[in-house]
Write a structure and sequence with these properties.
The protein is α+β, with helices and mostly antiparallel strands. About 50% of the residues lie in helices and about 15% in strands.
Amino acid sequence: MIFPIIMILVCAALGGGAFLFIRLSDKRKKQAAVADGQQKTANEFVNVKDIKGKYLYTRDQLVLCYLKINPITIDLFSKGEKHQLVKQLTASMSGIQHPFKFLAVSRPVDITPLISELSAALATSDTKQKELLKQEILEMTTFALSGEVVERQFYIVLWEKADEGAEKELLVKAKDFAGNLDDCGIGCEILEQQNIVRLCNLINNPAYMHLEDTDFTPSIPILGGGVAF
């Protein structure tokens, strides 16, 4: 009678010890992961090594260049005009043999010019018109603060391996790409350092307000522990 009881107690002790060992091991792994995350910089987190001039350098040895495509409105185009634009773009882009990425992001609409125009019109002596203008300004400001009014922006991303002369070759590709779009009546510009920083913030930081004048002075921010996608 005593032997079976002893065996049961021994098995229970071994099972409890194994359970405690697994729990402690998991806890140590989580603490190590948090400690590692606390020492990771923001640049390491988003794979950005540096941004200089027209180029973004990644930690996996790539050089990137960004082109911003100016949007066009085709709502008033006839069916024939739309087909003609498609044919022009197809013919213009058929010579491009290198890979590229098309990027579409949303950002708040800049209503500052409209607000300024409405504010200037408040100088009128008509009381009724002034009241209507104030209501319109209030309504537009509410839309802007709510974040409901957004616009789509379109970018082209080109890249090369970070070898000697990669920047020069990448710039030639970017200018050729922009020229092809210009030939079709679509404006395109190569982003400079400040605009590249703004685009990175717009993509990686949902709380970022794109319309602000960002200070992009080099710094090394440290991410808090437990941050992950």
